[in-house]
Design brief:
With about 120 residues, this protein is mostly helical. Helices cover about 55% and strands about 10% of the residues. Helix 1 crosses helix 4 and helix 3 crosses helix 4. The chain is globular and about 40 Å long. The relative contact order is 0.13.
Amino acid sequence: MTALNEQRLLELVANMVGFEYLMYVPAAFPHRSGLLYKREHARMSVWNPLTDDGDLFRLAVAAPGVDLQKIIKSVSRSCQDGLELRCAAVREAFVQAVATMVLDSCSSKVASTVGVDIVGGGDHQ
């Protein structure tokens, strides 16, 4: 995944769950790439559910409409590599699923405002 794709994906997901961040920082930043945000006592931290299990857990709590257990089972069947690679695959699949949910929701809202059924291609009349 390129940095630009990662940035767009993280920003989309963060906006969906109402996560307030300052800016995207690339991997050249001291530790890892992600969204820079201010923690309590004015400390700065980086949020990236693609690389951090704690951030993924917080995202899962904020987006209960995405079935994390189903994703874990699906990825575990298709990815027989070591635990770290399976964890990385689950993190990426979950964040992608949340982003898909956001995009689907936006598409449905746009379709309802213009009177077009995206799935069927017909008008709502």
